[in-house]
Specification:
Elements lengths: L1 H48 L7 E4 L6 H13 L4 E8 L5 E4 L9 E7 L6 H18 L4 E7 L1 H13 L7 E8 L18 E2 L2 E2 L4 H9 L8 E8 L12 H5 L1 H4 L5 E8 L12 H11 L4
Parallel strand pairs: 1-4, 1-5, 2-4, 5-6, 6-9, 9-10
Antiparallel strand pairs: 2-3, 7-8
Helix pairs in contact: 3-4
Organism: Listeria booriae
InterPro entries: AB_hydrolase_fold (IPR029058), DUF915_hydro-like (IPR010315)
Protein name: Alpha/beta hydrolase
Length: 295
């Protein structure tokens, strides 16, 4: 009888121990699962906290331009949620650079406005001033790369800058360039839409000195550059935006035919007039789609 009771006690202890082991194992598995879930959640939360740094875009007015020239376009792009107004950079006639506004490198597509106090100066001077601006942005704001937009002479200025600086490491790398109504080959307009500067398959029939210089120095332009060239035609028979002919604006295709990508768009009608191009919401959309295709 004692042997039977002893045997039963041993069996009971075995099952109790067995149950304890498996219970502990299941609890450990559950704890491991919960720990893994916590770690996974933490990883997701951490990834959500990682902030992206977008490439800022500089906007430059044309000949005799003011803060309103590109300012309204910048305001619309910001109000649409595509971008964020950021710094305003003004340059004195002596080339001194003054910056106002707050710089947040984590802002969505920061917009930087560039203003020349002497807004009727030469291409040579304005090219130097842009170098001063870019040096300051690189050295003091640690901006490694930018996009640039220029209306009229502003587009010519950026072209001069690109051909002067190219890929020099002291300056921010220019990723994308938008020219709006820029006279790359002079300002002649024909009443019948014809001039000596009309385009042929190989380039303008006649080249201005400025255009010839651009063609000579275009090898300095970064091969990685992406370009959007916008022209206007008010459709009054002159084939122009009333200030710049289609031929002059679109002659840019020969200056930028060696870059990573080149696209040109021609807008028509009353809103394609030279000073209205930067007030045209269709132009806004084209600029936004080009600069920030994923926004």
């Amino acid at each position: 009888m004692k042997k039977i009771l002893t045997f039963i006690a041993v069996i009971a202890l075995f099952f109790v121990g067995f149950g304890f082991i498996f219970g502990t194992h299941d609890a450990a598995k559950e704890d491991t699962k919960k720990t893994a879930e916590v770690k996974k959640t933490a990883a997701v939360n951490n990834s959500e906290k990682v902030k992206t740094i977008d490439v800022p875009t500089l906007f430059l007015h044309g000949y005799s331009g003011t803060k309103n020239s590109m300012g309204h376009m910048m305001d619309r792009l910001a109000s649409n949620g595509d971008a964020t107004r950021s710094l305003v950079v003004s340059v004195t006639p002596e080339g001194a650079v003054n910056v106002t506004g707050d710089w947040d490198k984590f802002a969505k597509n920061p917009l930087i406005q560039v203003l020349f106090e002497d807004n009727k100066s030469s291409l040579t001077n304005q090219t130097v001033w842009l170098q001063n601006v870019m040096l300051k942005l690189k050295s003091e704001y640690h901006i490694p790369s930018v996009n640039v937009v220029g209306h009229s002479m502003g587009g010519v200025d950026w072209t001069g800058y690109l051909e002067e600086v190219g890929n020099k490491p002291d300056f921010p790398t220019v990723k994308k360039f938008v020219a709006i109504g820029s006279p790359f080959n002079g300002l002649e307009i024909g009443k019948d839409g014809k001039t000596a500067y009309d385009l042929t398959e190989t380039g303008p029939a006649t080249q201005t000195e400025r255009f010839a210089n651009f063609m000579t120095n275009k090898k300095v332009i970064p091969a990685t550059l992406e370009v959007l060239n916008i022209a206007g035609d008010v459709e009054d028979g002159t084939k122009s935006d009333t200030s710049v002919s289609l031929a002059s604006a679109l002659s840019g295709k020969f200056i930028f035919n060696q870059v990573a990508s080149y696209k040109e768009l021609t807008f028509t009608g009353k809103q394609a007039q030279h000073s209205k191009l930067h007030e045209n919401k269709d132009v806004d959309a084209a600029v936004s789609d080009f600069l920030w295709p994923s926004s």
